[in-house]
Amino acid sequence: MRIFTAAIAMASGLIVLLGYLYPLEMLTQIRGTLTDWAIIIAGVAVLVGVLNLIFVQLEKIRSRQKNSIYGVLLIVSLLGTFGLGLVLGPGNQYVQLAVDAVIVPVEASLMAILAVTLVYASIRLLRRRADVMTVIFLLMAVIILVAVMPTPIGPIPGDWLILQFAGMFSRGGARGLLSGIALGTLLTSLRVLFGIDRPYGGN
Amino acid sequence: MLAFGLVIFSAILLIAFIYLRRKSPAVFRRIEAYERLNRLVGLAVENGTRLHISLGRGNLFTSRSGSALAALAMLRRLAERTSVSDRPPIVTSGDAALSILSQDTLQAGYRAAGAEDQYRVSTGRLTGLTPFAFAAGTIPITRDELVSANVLLGDFGAEAALLADAADREDANLIAASDNLSAQSILYASAQDPLIGEELFASGAYIGAGVSHDASLQVQDILRWLVILAILVGSFLKLMRFI
Predict the structure, then answer these.
(1) Taking CB atoms and an 8 Å limit, are B181 and A174 in contact across chains?
(2) Spatial separation of the C-alpha atoms in residues B52 and B149, rounded to whole Å
(3) Is B71 found in the same domain as B131?
(4) Nearest chain B CA: its distance from A159 CA (Å)
């Protein structure tokens, strides 16, 4: 069975890759069909994931773990929103309200917390790791912030020079990092394609 | 044609290096974060605490899937090594398909270690489908589940700052790497030993996931040198107005 699943995964991967590199009519059609199947499976995976989330929260509630009250709240909200969505449809104004009045404000609040967290992390960075690279990192962050932030006197003199100069290094660095990540992705994909790594439970 | 050539060339190099590495083991430079991870795994098993491994939100249908697959390979090895622990590691992700794969990988790791009965389906969790929902669902695990070390490896965005802060508040260790540039800069400021760029993909080789990971890392190094060479030659030719 394991060899069978590995063979299916490898064959599918190779067909999709070949269909991408050589867009022949037949390969493109098979590639499209395989991708459609994968999208359907991914849709079902969301339902399985949500069931897993409910299961984990129920276990927390059953074993009376710390803060399990939040689990109750999560399950009630989840089932309520899901039920309303099924009955009234996702475009209904009350269902939309769950998004506009709950999810958007909560995520906006987390975004605000994130800004404070980042400032705090930067302040603590020197205490955690006081080396040359840390000083350069913080210095560049401050210089760029000064150059881009709005001031009561308008743009600070020479801001374009700062952005050009700092941008030259940051763009180069970013491209280097992205090249490395692309190569890493290529090799990881090849390992999966050859069946060396089998994240689908094959080994 | 160039893309196809690169894939074929990389594949041949990978196969050749796997063969070579079976005969002589590879020697890599020291990466502090992975050395600490190896220590933390042993420590968590010994003192009865948990590892929290977060695989991020890497969707398998996008180019972000590479980091998720690399994280799954690392998870496979960590599951095997911690299978003797009383408290199994908890794995969180922000993508449904990745969450199912994480459960499958955990089970495979336990099976390989001969401890399949220790596997619990609740240890592989989907904690949220949007970046902040994922962070909000993951933070309580760091706080409430007796976690001694957090390993964040995969596709994270700015929400990584919230996860790093939660680990910091609980005084838990943090090993973190992302394929996202914003998250990398955030983690550089938040983590004790940040992993930069392609170091994320070196996790398998550094935690002993096998010769294929060692070979993969060496091929990556060769390809990087070739890219550097191509950039230098290209720049020179451009400077000389040949292209």
Answers:
(1) yes
(2) 6
(3) yes
(4) 22
Tell me if B44 sits within 8 A of B82, measured CB to CB. Answer: yes
What is the model's pTM?
0.90
Task: Give a yes or no: residue B22 inside a domain.
Answer: no
DSSP class per residue in B189-234: HH-SS---GGGGGGHHHHTT--HHHHHHHHHHHHHHHHHHHHHHHH
Query: Of A55, A88, A121, at which residue does a domain stop?
Result: A88
Q: Could you list the residue range(s) of the whole structural domain that residue A31 is in?
A: 1-88
d(CA B243, CA B238): 5
Helix (H) or strand (E) holding A171: helix A159-193
Task: Please classify residue A21 by burial: count the beta carbons closer than 10 Å to its beta carbon, then call 0-12 exposed, 13-18 middle and 19+ buried.
Answer: middle
Domain shared by B68 and B187, yes or no: yes
Nearest CA in chain B to A181: B198
Report ipTM (2 d.p.): 0.92
What are the tens digits of pLDDT across the range B166-216? Answer: 999 999 999 999 999 999 999 998 888 889 989 999 999 999 888 999 999
Q: Could you tell me if A99 lies within 8 Å of chain B, comparing CB atoms?
A: no
In angstroms, the CA A187 to CA B70 distance is: 10
